[in-house]
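Morning. Coffee machine broken again, so started the prediction first thing and wrote up yesterday's gels while waiting. Chain of 104 residues, entered below exactly as on the submission form.
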Amino acid sequence: MPWQPLMTRAKKMSTKIVESWKTSAKQGWSNGRMFAKVGLIWATSECVLEGYRGRTDPMNPLVAGCFTGIVLGAGGGVVGMGGGCLGFAAMGLVFESLMHNISG
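Came back before lunch.
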């Protein structure tokens, strides 16, 4: 029958779509857990730092970002920790500057 090759192609395509959705769901959960871990470390360290220092200034997100990068980069050794510290500290400064520009 001439329609049978179309049916097998449609089944293969639907199988690929289902596999793609499953892979995307797994990656989504993994990315979500990592984002939650970053947020938890960052927010906790910034709050503890603000409580310890007793003031809110741009130094807090800088140090909190550096600490977050060190914790997350610990598996990569000294280079990973240093790169994480620099990257997250820079990101903290960018976020802080954006928040101050928005809030006036």
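DSSP finds three helices and no strands in the chain. Going to sketch it on the whiteboard this afternoon.
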